[in-house]
């Protein structure tokens, strides 16, 4: 009860802080306060930082014809400026006002693309540049826009006349001053870190006193030291956050070098830790494991970033600060969540997936988590975040962590994760070429009185993944048939996998030109049920899941095994 009260107190403290933060933001956007964002207009852009994000000239052409494929949604403007129309999709609006799509104009490399980029920037300045409100001026969106305008200033300013040139720099300077005033009070997480990155880019790319660069560098270093964990993960525990932050940090490091400025040690250290962390979460096909907010992977984006990885070698197997384990032998990769939930402040995308795992063999995924539909309807997110959407165990069809559904909380904070495991113990049991671990969490202890312990062992040739799931009461007390001891252990099967039954009535997982895996269980007859895979590139897909269902009062420990029939030609894991 004390723990629940502590969580409740923490949650409402955050609600109060966010309410006060939004109130201050409205005050700072008022005409009375806005004079503080005026000041000297920079004379020019000294340097255009590089951009590692993928660009497609065809999208520049689509935009020219009034078709905007942003954030997974296509909007046709019918000849109007996109800033004139009301599109109800929040993600599309944020992407529009973030201006990262300018990279497609730069990739097109034509005068027409440059003129269109300039016209769209001019539209934004005219319609939103002096009206600080709404999505356009959310601090996180403003940070993205500042970075994009600097990175693609060469295409925006190509052939520009002097009045536009001055208007562009004046607006950019105003946005930078606004973001500087808001950064300290932004909610915790990657948006606040990106704001510090944007301000460092600005101090390097525009004429500024040395003190401005020192201040931006110092603030960036402090945020990196706080948000990037010792093993390279992010405090949100979201693999996508590692990818997104690296896509900004690597160009920033290059910009420091191009300006003959020494980057802070915190920046260098963060990159050196995060590149191996990105490889830690990566399956052999290049996709990232679907944990805590990760959806579909854009493979080329990861490949572009990892080309700058000077630490090439075998990925780490143990990420204790991020709370993940990796088993990798003989072309088989297993990645598992063995960590505590992230802090409530940064848990809007966190999942109740403790002790869940994914298994891939070669370039094919077999056992997965459902992941999220990155651009899909928000009402499906709670389903993707629930424990039942992960390859782990549930008790009484309940998640191991809860998500607040209070309207006052959600209006201020989104849907943070609360009441999850308070202790997760994990121990590696690697020996003689065998990779393995034993982990246990108490996410069900308070409500049902159970601890869940999972052991995974991958054989020395990578052909056998042996698992054990154990359910016990503290002190190994006897488990009684209370009607609250129903266990379901789920193994979500990737939708590309065929799930069959052989002549011995074993479940066989197979795919064309890929390995075949056989699932067996000693104590419980496995069943097959329908499932859904949210993280498909084209959106959610129907899939299936293997289910072990039993009562802990009758069976307190189950053993199961996935055995591979290897097909020659698969490379060793690296």
Automatic annotation (TrEMBL):
Keyword field: Lyase, Periplasm, Signal
InterPro entries found in the cross-reference section: Chondroitin_lyas, Hepar_II_III_C
Compartment(s): Periplasm
Keyword Lyase: yes
Record has Transcription regulation as a keyword: no
PANTHER family in the record: HEPARIN-SULFATE LYASE
Name of the protein described by the UniProt record: Heparinase II/III family protein
The organism of origin for this protein: Mesorhizobium salmacidum
């Amino acid at each position: 009860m004390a723990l629940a009260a502590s969580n409740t107190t923490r949650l409402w403290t955050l609600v109060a802080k966010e309410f006060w933060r939004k109130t201050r933001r409205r005050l700072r956007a008022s005409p009375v306060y806005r004079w503080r964002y005026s000041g000297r207009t920079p004379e020019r852009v000294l340097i255009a930082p590089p951009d590692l994000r993928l660009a497609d000239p065809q999208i520049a052409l689509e935009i020219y014809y009034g078709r905007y494929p942003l954030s997974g949604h296509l909007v046709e403007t019918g000849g109007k400026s996109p800033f004139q129309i009301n599109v109800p999709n929040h993600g599309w609006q944020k992407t529009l006002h973030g201006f990262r799509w300018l990279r497609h104009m730069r990739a097109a490399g034509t005068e027409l693309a440059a003129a269109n980029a300039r016209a769209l920037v001019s539209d934004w300045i005219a319609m939103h540049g002096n009206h600080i409100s709404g999505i356009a001026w959310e601090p996180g969106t403003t940070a993205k826009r500042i970075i994009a305008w600097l990175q693609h200033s060469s295409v925006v300013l190509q052939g520009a006349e002097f009045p536009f040139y001055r208007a562009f720099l004046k607006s950019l300077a105003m946005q930078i001053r606004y973001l500087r005033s808001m950064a300290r009070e932004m909610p915790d997480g990657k948006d606040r870190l990106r704001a510090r990155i944007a301000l460092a880019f600005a101090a390097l790319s525009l004429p500024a006193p040395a003190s401005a660069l020192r201040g931006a560098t110092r603030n960036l270093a402090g945020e990196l030291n706080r948000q990037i964990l010792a093993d390279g993960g992010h405090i949100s525990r979201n693999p996508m956050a590692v990818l997104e932050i690296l896509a900004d940090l690597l160009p920033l490091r290059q910009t420091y070098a191009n300006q003959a400025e020494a980057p802070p040690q915190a920046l260098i250290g963060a990159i050196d830790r995060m590149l191996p962390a990105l490889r830690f979460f990566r399956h052999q096909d290049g996709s990232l494991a679907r944990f805590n907010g990760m959806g579909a992977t854009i493979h080329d984006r990861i490949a572009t970033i990892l080309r700058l990885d000077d630490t090439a070698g075998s990925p780490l197997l143990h990420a204790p600060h991020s709370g993940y384990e990796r088993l990798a032998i003989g072309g088989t990769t297993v990645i598992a969540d063995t960590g505590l939930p992230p802090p409530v402040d940064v848990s809007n995308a966190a999942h109740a997936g403790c002790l869940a795992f994914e298994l891939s063999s070669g370039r094919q995924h077999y056992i997965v988590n459902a992941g999220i539909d990155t651009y899909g309807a928000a009402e499906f997110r709670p389903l993707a975040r629930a424990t039942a959407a992960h390859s782990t165990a549930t008790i009484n069809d309940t998640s191991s962590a809860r998500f607040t559904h209070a309207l006052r909380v959600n209006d201020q904070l989104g849907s943070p994760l609360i009441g999850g495991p308070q202790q997760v113990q994990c121990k590696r049991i690697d020996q003689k070429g065998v990779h393995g671990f034993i982990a246990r969490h108490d996410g069900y202890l308070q409500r049902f009185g159970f601890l869940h312990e999972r052991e995974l062992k991958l054989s020395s040739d990578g052909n056998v993944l042996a698992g054990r799931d154990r359910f016990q009461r503290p002190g190994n007390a006897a488990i009684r048939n209370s009607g609250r001891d129903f266990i379901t252990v789920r193994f979500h099967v990737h939708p590309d996998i065929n799930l069959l039954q052989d002549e011995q009535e074993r479940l066989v997982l197979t795919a064309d030109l890929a390995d075949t895996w056989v699932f067996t269980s000693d104590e419980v007859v496995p069943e097959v049920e329908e499932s859904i895979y949210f993280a498909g590139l084209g959106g959610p897909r129907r899939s299936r899941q293997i289910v072990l269902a039993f009562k802990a009062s009758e069976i307190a420990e189950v053993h199961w095994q996935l055995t591979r029939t290897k097909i020659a030609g698969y490379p060793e894991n690296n």
